[in-house]
Amino acid sequence: MTLNVQTLSDTTLVMSRTFNAPRELVFACHTQPEHLRHWWGRGNPLDVEMDFRVGGKWRFVEHADGTEHAFRGEYRAIDAPRGFTCTFEYEPMAGHILTEQYVFTEEDGRTTVTTTSTFASKEDLDGMVGSGMEVGAEQSYAALDDYLAKL
User: Fold this and answer.
1) Is the model's pTM score more than 0.70?
2) Residue ranges making up the domain that contains 49
3) CA-wise closest residue to 13 among 117, 86, 137, 83
């Protein structure tokens, strides 16, 4: 399956991807540390700290090529298994915080995850796109495909 990425405005980016799994399982893979460790960060070794509740914090550290990449955020809304909203910040770029809204929809046993990312500025959106975010997201979702096939 292919990741669909669209820029809706100077500060809004939407990604969607469909998985061959029911919504409850795909939602769990996005919200439970024991699942996230298998696919987030392109499937590289991942440290996961998370308190999945409104106001709870999360922090993931991906270990790749001898380097650590740390990300963090806070959960703003949860409507399990239909979706959740959180903030997202790459720690080396502290202060450039975006909001991500995840929506999970199921049809015929397949789940589409649509993520709407709202950036503080056009420069932040351009910086994220320029960082190779789309390739990284596709690699992570390919790792999720592989993981879902094992469950």
Assistant:
1) yes
2) 4-149
3) 117
Residue 70 · residue 89 · CB < 8 Å = no
Task: List the beta bridge partners of residue 138.
Answer: none
Q: How many structural domains compose the chain?
A: 1
Q: Are 26 and 104 in contact (CB under 8 A)?
A: yes
* CATH number of the CATH domain containing 81: 3.30.530.20
Would you give the distance in Å from CA 138 to the centre of its chain? 11
- pLDDT tens-place values along the chain, 151 residues long: 889 999 999 999 999 999 999 999 999 999 999 999 999 999 899 999 999 999 999 999 999 989 999 999 999 999 999 999 999 999 999 999 999 999 999 999 999 999 999 999 999 999 989 888 899 999 999 999 999 999 9
